[in-house]
Amino acid sequence: MLTRRAFLAYTGAGVLTLYVTSAAGVTEAVAAVPGGTLNPKKVKKYVTPLLVPPAMSRSSDGPVGVDYYEIALSQIDQQILPAGLPPTPVWGYGTEIGLTNAPSYSIEATTGRPVRIKWINKLVNENGTYLPHLLPVDPTLHWANPGGGPGGTDTRPDFTGRTFVPLEQFRDPEEQYTTYQGPVPMVVHLHGAVGVGDESDGYPEAWTLPDASDIPEGYATGGRWRDFFRTAAKDRLGLEWADGYAVVQYPNAQRPATLWFHDHTLGMTRVNVYAGPAGFFLLRDPRGDHGTITVRRSGAPAVLPGPAPQRGDPEGRTYYEIPLAIQDRSFNADGSLFYPDTRAFFDGTTGPYIPDGDISPVFNPEVFGNMIMVNGRTWPYHQVEQRRYRLRLLNGCDARTLIVDFSGIPEVDVWQIGNDGGLLPAPVHLTTATKNKALLAPAERADLIVDFTGVPVGSHQLRNVGPDAPYGSGRFKAADPSTTGRIMQFRVVPATTRDPSTPPADLVLPPVEPLPTATSTRKLSLTEQTSETADIPVTAMLGTVDDKGETHHLEWSAPVEVNPAATATEVWEIYNTTMDAHPIHVHEVTFEVVNRQPISVTEPTEEGHSPMVAVPSGTVPKPPQVWELGRKETVIAYPGEVTRIRLHFPDTGGQFVWHCHILEHEDNEMMLPLRIGLDDTYGPGSAEA
């Protein structure tokens, strides 16, 4: 994360106008990303078969008309690295009658049919005592803070009079503090769900600890909003919560789409998700592809590549629809996950740390792994036939923007038919539009049809040409081609049967109903706060823009200012004054990307003021990229631009959030409440910062 102050000093400019160019501006590769004690260059590539996630088994005792699951988060040892290297302790979601994995097996869902899930925090040992976190948790952020006790959770703790020390040096709690070692909070968010009750959305302050036998005295077992939403779940849906679990319901009253679920605990999402808990939630039309997608010339029902995994499939079944969760991780030689335990890892900063300064001792503003996993295995291979496949891509990285590159596969033909909001208005030929590249910021998805029909028999690599560093578009150095520049290998063999799927060029996708005309515009800002003691970034923040163009950052604990009325349609103008491209995710809705436009950013000349933004005269708005058409719920806000989106809010109110989906940013103040159709009397009240 490059500070604006450092950038302006480097350029000598006082007023900055940026014009973002295409993501294809790639230059030479960089050195390997630092990480743990396991050297990524010595880890074998393409020796482990890809895991195609099976469909998760439902529980047998659910209510009529509802798909019911009981899914627990537990710790397992998983063979992520190639055979011969140690297994990795991770956390995964799993059912009582299925296997736990990281990422988990997929949930298959149908539009119009609710899914009810009992999410269980089972991060306990066999004897029922709690498991500590696998990764270093910085206690100086505004975070869940179970040790604050009832009434003291979800705050930024005060460490006055104490000095941070690494865990191995921690001796005196009166004089020292270290990383959090207590029971782990958990709350699950279904990313991309629309029209969900706020009690089921996975609000960051609705977490629960495991129902362990040794919860320390004085600890809170749930977040500040948990009791409020527990009552709401009972009153609205008749759902019972208890220690260690919550029962939620997703109505699935939305367009079919590639959704995914992950942890969303306040100030801990980055380390919780890095430890493993995530999975696909594939929402389908009850009619299947038939009747919703047609053939251009005949109007007959079209056929997409399939099948996808279904419950009860026989072992060894061949699939032509495959979800691919792409994530970056680093490892130690003992197989364990590596995540930085000091700010010095990011930029060499050694303090002064909180409370003597304003720098958190452990938190890193962005973390990039030095190995690539697909579906929980490093650099796997998958055998494909010379035919069409439907590949559902997810960027599940904490901070890394991917540019998934098929161009090294000769004669491959790539089409995109959907994004994170569902099917596009029309197929996009990526082979023509982007030279076979798909840009994916963290949390974005791409629904692709990849045609291997003309690809020569043999082994071919899927690559990543995104950066090994924060993404800002424009020119950048591509990922290390020997490690993070590789994703997986396709081993192409002759087709065994005739391909019944419809050529993508002939597909007519269902129309996307436009949102109503907006009646108001809301101006929002993305800013970066630098340390008062060093020229380094402390945090990135969301905020507002006033009528004069001055930005005003807001903390998580501030009064809620993003409070649209129920059924309102708004245009949000998101002004990015930072040097990073931020993937902005809005809960509860999907939206339309309207356009982007260059802005000027003027640094303040007086103390107490923030950067000023303006749209220079003569600049022209740029339409969304063709793969952003239809609906989205995560949009890239580029540096030096205003990104405009149109949102329509539901008639049922609630407390949700909007945030940057770079998880390190989200965890340290780049997230704000979104309160729809309600006033300040709703909820348990505001926590103190």
TrEMBL record:
GO terms for biological process: cell division. This is Multicopper oxidase with three cupredoxin domains (Includes cell division protein FtsP and spore coat protein CotA). PANTHER family: BILIRUBIN OXIDASE (PTHR48267:SF1), CUPREDOXIN SUPERFAMILY PROTEIN (PTHR48267). It holds the Pfam family Cu-oxidase_2. Signal peptide: none annotated. Gene3D superfamilies: Cupredoxins - blue copper proteins. One of its GO terms (molecular function) is copper ion binding. The lineage of its organism: Bacteria, Bacillati, Actinomycetota, Actinomycetes, Propionibacteriales. InterPro entries: Cu-oxidase_C (IPR011706), Cu-oxidase_fam (IPR045087), Cupredoxin (IPR008972), TAT_signal (IPR006311). Belongs to the multicopper oxidase family. Keywords: Capsid protein, Cell cycle, Cell division, Virion. Residues 559-675 form the Plastocyanin-like domain. PROSITE patterns: TAT.
